[in-house]
Amino acid sequence: MSRRRGADLHTHSHYSDGTYAPAEVVALAVQLQLEAVALTDHDTVGGLTEAEVEARRLGITFVPGIELTADRAGAERHLLAYWIDPGYRPLAHLLAEMAVERRRRVDRIRERLQACGVDLPVEAVLGVSHYGVLGRLHVAEALCQRGVTVTVQEAFDRFLRDDGPAYVPKHALSVEETIALIHEAGGVAVLAHPGEMPADGEIASFAQAGLDGLEAHYPGYTPALSEYYERLAQDLGLVATGGSDFHGERRLQWLGAVTVPLETVARLWRCVSAVRGRMAAGAAAPGSTLPAGTRPAAAVKDWQGEDPDGPSGSTQQAS
Fold it and tell me: For helices 201-208 and 223-236, what crossing angle results, to 10°?
């Protein structure tokens, strides 16, 4: 097997809409010989402990994360948050509310499907979700399993797309509020898959609100597009990141299909230190510190300046 290096900073497990257990995601990253992997499930931190334990056992750098849903003038945006304190009460409260809201949203989607002549029992949706953080992807898969559609994409095209007859919008904090909450929880905020946004002016406004990074490398991006987002990140003072958005068998992109150098993780960690310094100096400091071990201690010596270029030997990155 050819040696893959670097870090995949965007993956999902069956705690949200992936098909692999958190430990399986980490084990696959080791099998692919990645240097680091993040777990960024949608609106839940439920899989982080399992993933971190496996990462320690297998000797790979683990970056704890989450992909938070946020709102921008009625449109959905996603923020990847790394090294947040999962015990920070305002964040824990928000995630609990979002889990309840996701279940209610599925019920409303089912009502709209009923109006379209499609009967979808809630048990069918719950049956494809392991841990209750529900989303449209679970509804689409349930429609496939019941023979209503042939593919998940058909389910989105016919019913669940953003302007589809069964679409129900999510209720979420604004992007600016979400960035502030991530910082208060001791983490850093990265805008996910910016190519899905209609205007780059939004990114500049998010940077003014404290955004720390931009996912410049993502499946399907051409080299030219990734280079454009790299330059935009540099102009705005953001860290350019990337990842595969791995979901297991539910999507075509595979773990490690897009990686970034380990130095990118080091740069993000330096942003974490800066954010926590600002929080500690102000009135909005987080109410607790990160649990022991969430910091990637295996490489922290390099990241603190002994090797300004970061660990060497990375190949097949940002591709």
Answer: 30
Tell me the C-alpha to C-alpha distance, in Å, between residue 226 and each of 15, 80, 233, 313.
29, 18, 10, 22
**138: CATH:** 1.10.150
Q: Nearest CA to 63 among 86, 46, 44, 40?
A: 40
278 token code pair: 């600002």
Residue 17's pLDDT band, with cuts at 50, 70 and 90, is: confident
Question: What is the rounded CA–CA span in Å between residue 4 and residue 34?
Answer: 6
Confidence (pLDDT) at 102: 86
Assess whether 255 and 182 both reside in one domain. yes
The pLDDT tens digits for 247-280 are: 998 666 799 999 999 999 999 999 999 999 988 8
Query: How many whole angstroms separate alpha carbon 277 and alpha carbon 176?
Result: 20
Q: Which of 160, 182, 207 is the last residue of a domain?
A: 160
- Segments forming the whole domain that contains residue 146: 95-160
Residue among 246, 310, 263, 288 at smallest CA distance from 19: 246
Residue at 187 is within a domain: yes
Per-residue pLDDT tens digits for 141-176: 899 999 999 998 999 999 999 889 999 988 889 999
Q: Work out the average pLDDT over 100-112.
A: 92
Exposure of 199 by Cβ count < 10 A (0-12 exposed, 13-18 middle, 19+ buried)? exposed
State the pairing for strand pair 61-72/75-82: antiparallel
Q: 185 with 85: CB under 8 angstroms? A: yes
